[in-house]
Amino acid sequence: MSGRVNATFAVTKVRLDEYGEVIQVDTRGDTVAGEEPLEIRVGGQTLTTTMRTPGHDVELAHGFLHSEGHIEKASDVTEARYCAGASVDGRNPFNLLDVELANPHAISLADLRLTTTTSACGVCGTSSIEALMKQSRYSIPQVPVDPGIVAKLPGALKAEQKQFRKTGGIHAAGAFTLEGEPVVVREDVGRHNAADKVIGHLLMEGMLPASDLILVMSSRASFELVNKAAMAGFGMLVAVSAASSLAVETARETGMALVGFARGDRFNLYSGSLVTR
């Protein structure tokens, strides 16, 4: 893998007193999260370009293709390789990933999104719950929400966020057991990319559907994240920030438990049922 997971810049840090007056100016090196484009090609044709943090790109491609409904299992991908060697049109060859499918006709030209998505966008083109319900391969399990488990998930995710500790500016996604133990955690500047990396890892390890796992996100819960979780068969999504209206509607329609604002001793339950003791 070539590309910067993070980078260091000279940054001027300014401190103010309670009256708004400058009391300290200090210039020092500061580490920030890396962000570079990844062009995913299928059979030599561009499917999408997304801004991501370099690393686990093959997992990202698998997760993206699965979330979009193009592949069902790891064997649907016969090869995923960088366009390594000399630069391509002046671009870093490690920012171009070419995927070959077992069925070369699985994606038609009509499916190709010849546009650049941002690190925050994801599957914004998929705008209806009905489309998700038609695409979903797995039934969503009913996972009761255990408050004790939910309470420890944000801290357990944060404990695995190595790049966040260095940069303070990167999202994380993690698959956890129903007992709250981490299975895989991935980081990326894009929350949807982090989710795709986790789902791609599970797909490549033969662990889908994720009916016995919880997807935990360091970000807000948006429609595209609920969509990805549903496509992978998760029964619960836990986010440390807010949930959007369409995310809530989608979770309720699919039967997925959805938790937001998970902050230690408190959380919001948008969908699903609590464990009663």
UniProtKB/TrEMBL annotation:
Superkingdom classification of source: Bacteria
Residues of the active site: C121
Keyword entries, A-Z: Cytoplasm, Molybdenum cofactor biosynthesis
InterPro entries associated with the record: Cytidine_deaminase-like, FdhD
Primary localization: cytoplasm
Protein localization: Cytoplasm
Gene3D superfamilies to which the protein is assigned, alphabetical: 3.10.20.10, Cytidine Deaminase, domain 2
Binding site for Mo-bis(molybdopterin guanine dinucleotide): F261, A262, R263, G264, D265, R266
Family membership: Belongs to the FdhD family.
Known function: Required for formate dehydrogenase (FDH) activity. Acts as a sulfur carrier protein that transfers sulfur from IscS to the molybdenum cofactor prior to its insertion into FDH.
Protein name in the entry: Sulfur carrier protein FdhD
